[in-house]
Amino acid sequence: MKVSVVGTGYVGLVTGACLAEMGNDVLCLDVDPNKIRILEEGGIPIHEPGLDKVVERNVKAGRLSFTTDIARAVAHGTIQFIAVGTPPDEDGSADLQYVLAAARNIGRLMTDYKVIVDKSTVPVGTADKVRAAVADELAKRGSDVQYAVVSNPEFLKEGAAVDDFMRPDRIVVGADDEQAILLMRALYAPFNRNHERLIVMDVRSAELTKYAANAMLATRISFMNELALLAEKMGADIEQVRLGIGSDQRIGTHFLYAGCGYGGSCFPKDVKALIKTANGEDQELLVLKAVEDANERQKTVLVNKVVKRFGADLTGKHFAVWGLAFKPNTDDMREATSRVVLAELFERGATVTAYDPVAMAEAKRIFGDEPRLKYADSPNAALQGADALIIVTEWKEFRSPDFEKIKSSLKTAVIFDGRNLYEPALVKQAGLSYESIGRASIQA
Ligand SMILES: NC(=O)c1ccc[n+]([C@@H]2O[C@H](COP(=O)([O-])OP(=O)(O)OC[C@H]3O[C@@H](n4cnc5c(N)ncnc54)[C@H](O)[C@@H]3O)[C@@H](O)[C@H]2O)c1
């Protein structure tokens, strides 16, 4: 099938590459010439495990190519995926300008039947806006070319995006046009071989499904984070509580990890956008407002623990920070807890040496030539001369550290662990103090 993908970011590039892998002829469009240049030169503009191989293989096979030429992309695909960003507007609602610009481009230039697929996460009612934008462009040139608008939200996780796309839990298609549903079924058939994963529903329900999924996951995290704060006060251990409730099949084990707050390009923005959508309908979402507030508070928990030990004024203090990405296996730092932690530390007069396996280039882009922030090329190098270690992201390489080395490198033998990576007794044995989330404070 001929497919165009508009927007070649985390979602668009993975979608394009994986659809090409199944034999489709895919053209990816982006307005960012730098991204397209990197891809055309054989590079990958983002860090996503396994993606480079899929891209390379399919470019070589002639099934995957990249362009900044809008007319070429519109002409290419019968199916036109819109996978552009939907960042939060100033008021928290989803900013649809990129989605609608992409829709207008399609309407302005299409000359045959198109299935226009909203893959970006967009509020309920966006398909109608996309339909209207296309209709408006067609009307301007007196064209009656047929088209359908479909909602096909994406559920992939950054860091496991290729796997998620190749083996999805479900594929949601919101559509009311029979021909479009037929084409979407055919496109996704190869991802659907051992059991039916495609759920066809009405467009609005599909749009809401995406927000409902992210809101539910964010709720589980904030719920556990809130209980973690209580556990600390009550002398309980949130990790034991997690095991205790996760074994209940009605609850399940996923997304029950207490930590220093969720970040990333999706949960924070999607929770905000859903609250905003509901406000527009005069329907307050009380649970989700609390989820968001709890998360904002949770992002400050690590620095509060630092302040408790070192005092509010951290002038002259220097910290090693392990992990900058919002989660492991990605270089994405959008809404990352590390950004709040660093800002708070700087505000209080501290300096930082940070280490992250892949996100340091992104951090340099964000923080520019911030004089209070240095980077190290290994976790151990970051420790040199630091007063304490702060762990923000649960990268695998932080999981079994040399505690002796940590102890001998730090001025004060203390770890602030925002991801509960270690068994407290082991850390204590190594002579280190240990502050984690929802567990008793360990003094060396
Ligand atoms: N990142 C995720 O894990 C994830 C998962 C599921 C859903 N989503 C949703 O998917 C959408 C895209 O997210 P992302 O993380 O891939 O964003 P991204 O910022 O990585 O990529 C978006 C790309 O679109 C390009 N673009 C913007 N306007 C364009 C236009 N008119 N024509 C062509 N290209 C254009 C940008 O240059 C950018 O490269 C968002 O709505 C997001 O909420 C993201």
Structure, briefly:
This protein is α/β, with parallel strands linked by helices and 444 residues long. 44% of the residues lie in helices and 14% in strands.
What does this structure look like?
- It contains 18 helices and 14 strands.
- It has 444 residues and is of the alpha/beta class.
- Strand 9, helix 14 and strand 10 form a beta-alpha-beta unit.
- Helix 1 packs across helix 3 and helix 9 packs across helix 12.
- The longest helix is centred in the middle third of the chain and has 32 residues.
- The protein starts with a strand and ends in a 9-residue tail after the last strand.
- 47% of the residues are buried.
- The mean pLDDT is 97.
- The chain binds nicotinamide-adenine-dinucleotide.
- Nicotinamide-adenine-dinucleotide binds next to helix 1 and helix 5.
Furnish the topology, listing elements before pairings.
Blueprint: E1 2-6, H1 10-21, E2 25-29, H2 33-40, H3 51-60, E3 64-67, H4 70-76, E4 79-82, H5 97-109, E5 114-118, H6 126-140, E6 147-151, H7 161-166, E7 171-174, H8 178-188, E8 198-201, H9 203-234, H10 238-246, H11 267-280, H12 286-298, H13 301-310, E9 318-322, H14 337-347, E10 351-355, H15 360-367, E11 373-375, H16 379-383, E12 388-391, H17 403-409, E13 414-417, H18 424-429, E14 433-435
Parallel strand pairs: 1-2, 1-4, 2-3, 4-5, 5-6, 7-8, 9-10, 9-12, 10-11, 12-13, 13-14
Helix pairs in contact: 1-3, 5-6, 9-11, 9-12, 11-12
